[in-house]
Design a protein that fits this description.
Shape: elongated
Strand content: 35-45%
CATH architecture: Roll
Distance between the termini: 14 Å
Number of domains: 1
CATH topology: Thiol Ester Dehydrase, Chain A
Order of helices and strands: EHHEEEEEH
Helix content: 10-25%
Structural class: alpha+beta
Largest sheet: 6 strands, antiparallel
CATH superfamily: Hotdog Thioesterase
Amino acid sequence: MNKPIADALWVRVYYEDTDFSGRVYHASYLRFLERGRTEWLRRRGFGHRDLAESSGAIFAVRSLKIDYLAAAMMDDLLEVETSAAAVRGASITFHQRVVRGDKELVTAEVLVASIRDGRPARIPAELRLRLQPN
């Protein structure tokens, strides 16, 4: 298992992210987490489109465990923290947190599978190398 490599993405809560009470709607956190994972890859030199075009491989969420601990409100500035907990042949397990200041709002463990033509596929070697600890 690799040493976790943490990354952060700042997200502002907009009206479209909230429910009728002004709190962030539970499904909006899934979008925030997806953005965190996408930027995590991009910062390592791999955008989703580039990966698909160069190797035919894409990442799809296989499983997701999420805990909602506290609510975020409209206009809050949230930090989405993303780290790779495990990198395997055809999957990556991410640990993610959404925080507001010192307050932890959401924790999630997300397993993404590398797939090509609808079937599991090895993660491209170049990407696996970039995920190794420095």
